[in-house]
Structures are given as C-alpha cells and as structure tokens.
Amino acid sequence: MAQLMNRDEFRTALEEAIKGKSANKAPFSVAWASGKLSRNHLARWAENHYHYVGPFADYLAYIYANTPESHTEAKDFLLQNMYEEELGGDRHTDLLIRFAEACGTTRERVENPDNMSPTTRGLQSWCYAVAMREHPVVAVAALVVGLESQVPSIYRRQTPTLREKYGFTDEEVEFFDLHIVSDEIHGERGYQIVLEHADTVELQQRCLKICEIGAQMRLLYTTALYYDYVADELPLTELDMAA
C-alpha cells in the first residue's frame, strides 16, 4: 500500500512520472530540431498550437475559482500566470500568431478552430475537463507540472534551428524565447504548489497519475502533428526513427 512521501521523495516521483514521455521524442519534434520541416509544416503546427495554448488562461481561471482561499500562494501564482498570458506585455497568443504569419499562414486561419486536428481538439478538451473537474492541486499537477514544465526543454532544442536553419528573426521567434524563461519559472512554482498541498496519500497518487497522463497527452498531440501533416513528405526512415 502506498505511503505518504516526503517532499524530496514526492518531487522525484513526479519527475519520474513525466520522464521518458517528453514531446521531444515525437517525430514532429525530431524533424523540427533537425531542420527537416518546411515552413508550411511549421504553419500547421502554429494553427494547432494556438488552440491548445490559446485558452491556457481560461484553464487557469477554472483552477483559480476552485482553489480554496487558504491556498493564498497558489491563487497568487495562478492569477499572475493568467496576467502574463493575457496582459503582461504582448499577449502570448499574439506572439504565436506573429510566428505563424512568418511561416506563411494568416491570423484568420490560426484562429479558426476548423484548422485544428482531432487530436489537438482532444488535448484542448482534456485541459478544460481537468481544470473544471479535478481537485485544484491535481489540476495544477496536470497542466503546470505535466504540461507547462516541459516547454523549456522542448523549445531549447527547437528555437536555435528556427534562427540558424530557417532564418527567422528574433522578433518572429519571440514566442519561443519568452516561454523558455517564463515556463521554467511557472513549472517550478507548479511543483512547489503540488509538493505543499498534495498532503494525503490519495492526492499524491492522483497527482502522479495525472502528471503521467499529461505528459502522454502532449506526446500524443505532437506525434499526431507528424502523421497529419508531415509523414507523406518525410518518412520516419529519414529521421532515423523506426517505422
């Protein structure tokens, strides 16, 4: 039977729940980091990614509403995260659309939900369901630890290629530079909230499971982008990945 873990044990268990499921392992990410995608492929990514991350402040708002008043630092973090997404300087979705336009698509196409894949729609729906229905600490584990904390490691591999291979300007890739920094901070604060407030065996186990599921969801979403938009032009064998 599971026992209540101390903070160090729980932190290690959370990291292990995500380990091995990074979206960096998806063929779309491998192709991106190696410079084998076209700008058209990157445009399709942006059109999908908008509908996953665009509502992130909405997800956080549902968690905020469900968080007890006694969890002051958690509510402060969620509110600050929402502010940064929507009001703290350039809106993050506007930076994403700037990149999308540099790839050759339009704001209208990006904002049109008909242009996201079924898998992207599933990820968005899962995020909404978790934010609205789960215990707030479990929801933070899912969306901030399981999903958001992965972002810096993903973008650190992809962003240099955008400059060196594709020739994007600093302004055009600001979305990625910003999230390498901000999501590292957000991810760590998410960990601290979960470590502090998952104070029963049941909550710890639920957090571990949903972190694993969150990582799997992002990996599935990123893998689907390859099969939906890239596979016909770039087989796995050209990425040194087994079919």
Automatic annotation (TrEMBL):
Alphabetic keyword roster: Oxidoreductase
UniProt keyword annotation of Oxidoreductase present: yes
Oxidoreductase among keywords: yes
Cited SUPFAM superfamilies: Heme oxygenase-like (SSF48613)
Alphabetical list of Gene3D superfamilies matching this protein: Heme oxygenase-like
Pfam family, one: Haem_oxygenas_2
Highest taxon above the source species: Bacteria
Matches recorded under PANTHER family: 4-AMINOBENZOATE SYNTHASE, PQQC-LIKE PROTEIN
Annotated protein name in UniProt: Iron-containing redox enzyme family protein
